[in-house]
Automatic annotation (TrEMBL):
Organism: Devosia subaequoris
InterPro entries documented for this protein: LysR-type_TF_proteobact-type (IPR058163), LysR_HTH_N (IPR000847), LysR_subst-bd (IPR005119), WH-like_DNA-bd_sf (IPR036388), WH_DNA-bd_sf (IPR036390)
Keyword Transcription regulation (UniProt): yes
Record's keyword terms, sorted: DNA-binding, Transcription, Transcription regulation
Lineage of producing organism: Bacteria, Pseudomonadati, Pseudomonadota, Alphaproteobacteria, Hyphomicrobiales
Name under which the protein is recorded: DNA-binding transcriptional LysR family regulator
Database matches in SUPFAM superfamilies: Periplasmic binding protein-like II, Winged helix' DNA-binding domain
GO molecular function, one term: DNA-binding transcription factor activity
Amino acid sequence: MPNPFPIPLNALRAIEIVARRGALAPAAEELGVTIGAVSQHLRRAEDRLGMELFARTPQGIKPLPALMQVLPQLSGGFTQLQDGLASLTGAHEGVLNVTVGSIFASRWLIWRVNKFSALYPGLEVRLTVTGAMLDLSRPDIDCGIRYGDGVWPGVDVSLIGGQDYQPVCSPLIRDKVESPADLARVPVIADQTSMLDWPAWLRRAGLDPAMPLNGPVYSDASLAFDAAISGQGILLAADMMTADAVSDGRLIRPFDLPVAGKRGYFLATAKGRRQPKKLGFFRDWLAAEVPASVLGYVHQNVPNTATLAPYSI
């Protein structure tokens, strides 16, 4: 009888990671082997199957169409293996690992995560704060919070919020911005990391979307935000991210003219991955907390943990 599994599991895992990530190095890191060993895994697998799985190009290694067609099944299979083992052992059920960008973490989540912890005192939240788009199928990551259009390969998403945006500034310069036309005469802070659309907002305000805007330039979103608070100029920002600063008077919305953008914040998980109840608790909490936060409610009462049962698997 022919062997139904002609490729070793480690080699199959190497194929899946390289195809999904588009490089040998991530597979080498995850498998704990050298890049040369990963390359050998791929070559031997191709020899055993009698077909090429990857194209070797000057730009790097690229999966061929036949492999891309079955990649969702390979990725889903390994995800289910990881989840099955976690269910069997109960590993990590008391920890929720969330990867998140610095702005969402520092301007929103860090001020509220204590309320989630108070609701579920037996569930520890661990944040991995990074600008990189980490692989959500990793066993040490349960979910991510991402900003964008919600379309990422191999990912299931649910919208959190953050679509509305508008200019904000410090009360220190309020007298300089009586109308949107004043943007041509006051500093406008440029956040080079932002995906918000100034032309769309200018059009909404009845101005030329190509109107030149000048001011300080920052390559870090947190610095741009702090620059606005310090009075350095006008910043285009999501209402969700500025609600607390507006509520406590550090920022104002001089024109009160929001635009609904095409992008927002999404709760993201690896496609096909088991959805543990801890993730459901986090999703439900976000669904309730985000609308409240847009209204500036950051210091809501935290439940009395003495009346709550601790989180259990």
